[in-house]
Amino acid sequence: MRILIIEDEFSLADVLAAAFQKENYLADTAYDGESGCLQALTGIYDAIVLDVMLPKMNGYEVLKKLRKENMDTPVLMLTAKSELDDKIKGLDSGADDYLTKPFETRELMARIRAITRRKGIVENDSLTFGDLELNLKQCTISNTANSQSVQLGKKEFQLMELFLRNQNQIITREQIAEKIWGFESDAEYNNVEVYISFTRRKLNFIGATARIKAVRGVGYLLELPSGGGKK
Ligand code: CA
Questions:
Q1: 15 C-alpha to ligand 1 centroid (Å)
Q2: 52 CA distance to ligand 1 middle (Å)
Q3: Pairing with 97, which of 162, 200, 215, 218 sits 20 to 30 Å away (CA)?
């Protein structure tokens, strides 16, 4: 899962990003409304934490713009005051939830889990495909048929999660690069190929029947051999 934190208090934004990263999320930060809005519009985020008082564009304006562009990414708003008007305004602008500052990071994370769950981005401890199981807490993949298991590196884990959340769908190299490398570096498509090959080796290592198939000139697909496994 990839989270965007739009918050102009650098220290708070960075603390939140670190807390999400610790829980194996990818987290990006934006420090003003305008750049946050542009980042959000890429559509690569599974949830957005959005402060109300922001330079350039306030949180309500950002949210209205996103909803106007038909982005239904779950949004949790951070309001400075616990005034009813602020909460109503936030919810009316299309927020899924709000939290009043100051708050505990643990509560914010629980609320993010709740709103992504409500949007159907199911957050269990594991994702499965046939006999393949990805443990989201421990970052391991296992073969449930032979109990073989292996630890994944950070990027391998993100890649596997992306495939398991989009089963039997072709994911383009561009989508993989954007979702996993995002804005943090110049995501070369070479990176994608390198990590696909690492991940394939690990799938082989545990004897998984699922495989990452290359779709020439388009991207990749996680699939089970025909007739094998269950969806
Ligand atoms: Ca602020």
A1: 14
A2: 6
A3: 162
Q: For residue 22, how far is its CA from the centre of ligand 1 (angstroms)?
A: 24
Centroid of ligand 1 to alpha carbon of 44 (angstroms): 23
How do the pLDDT tens digits run along the chain, 231 residues long?
899 999 999 999 999 999 999 988 999 999 999 999 999 998 889 999 999 999 999 999 999 999 999 888 999 999 876 667 777 887 888 899 999 989 999 999 999 999 988 776 656 788 899 999 999 888 899 999 999 999 998 889 999 999 998 888 999 988 888 888 876 556 567 788 899 999 999 999 999 999 999 999 899 999 998 754 444
Using the mean position of ligand 1's atoms as its centre, give its distance from the Cα of residue 179 in Å: 26
Residue 10's alpha-carbon distances to 14, 20, 29, 166, in angstroms, are 6, 15, 9, 34
> Do the strands 219-223 and 171-172 form a parallel or antiparallel pair, or are they unpaired?
antiparallel
> pTM here?
0.73
Task: Say how many Å lie between the CA of residue 205 and the centre of ligand 1.
Answer: 48
